[in-house]
Amino acid sequence: MANSDSGDSVVDRVVRLISAFPEGRALQLSELAGRAGLPLTTTHRLVRQLAGHNFLETGPDGMVQPGLRLWELANRASPALALRQAALPFMEDIQQVLHQNVNLAVLDGEDVLFVERLSRRGSVNNRAQVAGRMPVHVSSAGIALMAYQDRLLQAQYLEHFGAPDDGTTVDAVRALLSETARQGFAQLEGVVDPDTWGIAVPVLDRRQHAVASLGVVVPPREMRVQALVPALQTAARGIARALADAGRPGSWTSGGSISRTDT
């Protein structure tokens, strides 16, 4: 049957099922059904079918997790693959100098999506995880990205900006975006973690719009703007050139328009 009683298509239900998995954790079938908002019988049927194609894996203990085939196809066809390939040599150079976390992110609606992260033993705590998301306003990567979008997209973002639990106001975000565009980098101190300082710069296309951001997370005692910013900006320009040379100056970005669905 193509549609459920609620009107959801099979594709809708599969997307909800796959999207229900938290980062790095398998789920019991009943928990998966609850998180996906699907009946248990429907979840059982879809899991069995998806596991038959190795998109999901089921263990003897009844736990369900994303399968290797899903990871394979996502990485093979990922629009961020060209970005990661272009950025990794520059990210490695930055990490060798700083010995701290280096991250690469793109804009996806009202979120920043992290597509790569390098860290090493002894690095400060970094909440950014590969394939993880954060609201734009809590991450230096997000602010660097949004500050260098076109005015229409920025206006849409600010118009939809709600009242987050952290008490951030739309006027504060507007001021932060303006400051970032003026100085060429974003910095946030202790927003996600009180013992960290994030700084990020945009990776710009030919229109001077951000297609990605390159950032570092360091302890406050190592926050040296005059040293960090030029190194990051040089690396960001190198990433942009590598993308242009590969004929992929920005076709992989996921910013697009911002929309809000009320629940």
Automatic annotation (TrEMBL):
Q: Which residues form the IclR-ED domain?
A: 69-245
UniProt keyword Transcription regulation, yes or no: yes
One Pfam family it belongs to:
IclR_C
Recorded hits in InterPro entries, A to Z, give: GAF-like_dom_sf (IPR029016), HTH_MetabolicPath_Reg (IPR050707), Tscrpt_reg_IclR_C (IPR014757), Tscrpt_reg_IclR_N (IPR005471), WH-like_DNA-bd_sf (IPR036388), WH_DNA-bd_sf (IPR036390)
Q: Which UniProt keywords apply?
A: DNA-binding, Transcription, Transcription regulation
Task: Name the domain of life this protein comes from.
Answer: Bacteria
Record-annotated HTH iclR-type domain positions: 8-68
Looking up PANTHER family in the UniProt record yields: HELIX-TURN-HELIX TRANSCRIPTIONAL REGULATOR, ICLR FAMILY, HTH-TYPE TRANSCRIPTIONAL REPRESSOR ALLR
Protein's name in the database:
IclR family transcriptional regulator
